[in-house]
Amino acid sequence: MNVLIPTPLRSYTERRQVEASGATLGAVLDDLDSQYPGIRFRMINEQGRMRTHIRFFVNGEQIFDLSQLLHPTDEVLIVQALSGG
Amino acid sequence: MPNKIRKAAARMPATTTRTKRAPSSRPARRVLVLVATRKGAWLYRGDAARRSWRVDGPHFLGHIVSHLVLDPRDGRTLLAAAKTGHLGPTVFRSTDLGRTWKEAARPPAFAKVVDGPDAETQGRVVDHTFWLTPAQASEPDVWYAGTSPQGLFRSGDGGITWEPFSSINDDPQYRTWMGTVQDGTPDGPKLHSIIVDPRDPTHFYFAMSGGGVHESVDGGQTFAPIVKGLEVVEGFDAANVTFHDPHCVRLCASNPDRLYQQNHCGIYRLDRPSSEWVRIGKTMPKRVGDIGFPMVVHPRDANTVWVFPMDGATVWPRTSPDGVPSVYMTRNGGKRWQRLDSGMPQQQAWWTVKRQAMTADARDPVGLYFGTTSGELWMSRDEGSRWVCIARHLPEIYAVEAAEVA
Q1: C or N terminus of chain A, fewer CB within 10 Å?
Q2: Do residues B306 and B384 lie in contact, with contact meaning Cβ atoms separated by under 8 Å?
Q3: What does pLDDT average to over chain B?
Q4: What is the predicted ipTM?
Q5: Is the per-residue pLDDT at B207 higher than 80?
Q6: CATH number, domain containing residue A50
Q7: Which CATH superfamily does the domain covering B9-109+123-405 fall into?
Q8: Residue B117 pLDDT more than 70?
Q9: Domain hosting residue A72, numbered range
Q10: What residues in A contact B107, CB-CB < 8 Å?
C-alpha cells in the first residue's frame, strides 16, 4: 500500500511516498523499518506506543491503534502533529 | 538517517589574543571543539596555535543535540545524541570525523514492559539521550549513555546498538531516588556524569539530576549512593537521596582518587577513600555564590579546577550573576578562588553555561572552552587569563567538548 512520509522522516526514505505491506498498521511500520532502518523508533516508542507528536491516518481517518487492520488498497498518511506556535 | 551527509567548511576570522607562555612541546596535533546545540551540531577545527578556527557545520540542522563526543581511543569516531521536537531520540555515529554519519541501529531505549494492568504507567520511554561517555582504552568499543528520564545504557559495538546497563533502570529503590518528572530539571530529569575509573574499568560513578551521585565497584552490577556531605535545598531532608541534585561531577585524570562536583547547592570535592564530600564553594565571593552547572578539572593538576557561577538566587534566573559573566578558578583545591573574566563582557550579559558546555583541552597551557545559552563560543589559550569569543549567533549551546586530532 502507499505510505505518505512527512518531511521530517524523508531523510530515511528520500521520497514523499513509499510502498509498504502488512495486515495491520503496526506490521506496515515494521515493514517500513526493514526498508528504512531506524524510522519506526522515531515514531513509536520502546513501549510500543505512538510518540506524542506523530499521527497516523488511513484513507483520511485518524487511527490510534497499531493493531488496526488494513487492506492492500489502503493509503497510510503519516503526519507530524501541529504542536508548535 | 541512512543517507550520507557531507558538510562544507567555511573559515572563521582569526582571533588576535596572544599567549605569554612558551608554545607546547607536544606533537603538532590540532584541537577539535565539538559544539552541540538546540538546533544542530558544529565542529571547530583549530590551527596549531589555537588562534584561528575553521567551522564545519551545521550537522543535523534542526535536531536537538545534547552531546557530541569524539572517541579518544581511535581519534575519528564521533557519537551525537540527537532528537527533534517531534521525532523520537537517536544516536548518530561517524567514523570519519563528521564527514559522513549513520544512525545507531538500536538507540538507547528502556526495556519494554510486558502487557498487564500497569504496563501503561510502568513502562518508561527515553525522551532523549543526554550524556555520552567512552570507556577506557582497554575496552575499545564500549560506550555508556545517560538519558532523560534517568537511565543508564551501554554499547559494546562502538555505539551501533545499545542495551540497558546495570539494574538501576528498573530497580525499585533507584526508581524512587530518580523521582518523577516534577523532581527533575525543567527539560527533564537526567542521568549524567558517567565516569569510568581510568585504573579500573569495573569502577564507575554517575550522577542524576535529581537523584544523587552513585558508585559501582563491581562492573555496574550494583551501585550505591555517595551523598554524604552534600547539602540539599532548605526544607528538604539530606538523608533522602531523591533530593540531591548534582549538576556535574568530574574525576581528576592526574589523581583518580579526587572528584569535584558542581551541585545545585554548592561546589564540592571528594578525596577517596573518603565518602564524604567537602563543600569548597564557601570560599567563593558571597556576591557571586557557588551555584552553577559546569565543572572543569585540569588535565595534569588535581588542585586546579574551573567553574562558571550562575545566579541561583530567588527564582533561579540561571543567568550570570548581575549580568557580568566570569569563570572562577582555584589552584589549591578550593581554598581560594580567582575571578577570570578578562575579555568577557563587563555588563548586560545575561547568559550562562550549561553543565556539559565547558571543557578543557590537554595542551600546555591548557585551553578552556565554553558555550553559552545565547549561542556564543568562548575560549582561552592560557588557562583562563584571557578570553576570546570564537563564534557568535549559534543556537543555544548544550555541550562543548575539546579533543586533539592529527
Answers
A1: C
A2: yes
A3: 91
A4: 0.88
A5: yes
A6: 3.10.20.30
A7: YVTN repeat-like/Quinoprotein amine dehydrogenase (2.130.10.10)
A8: no
A9: 2-80
A10: 38, 41
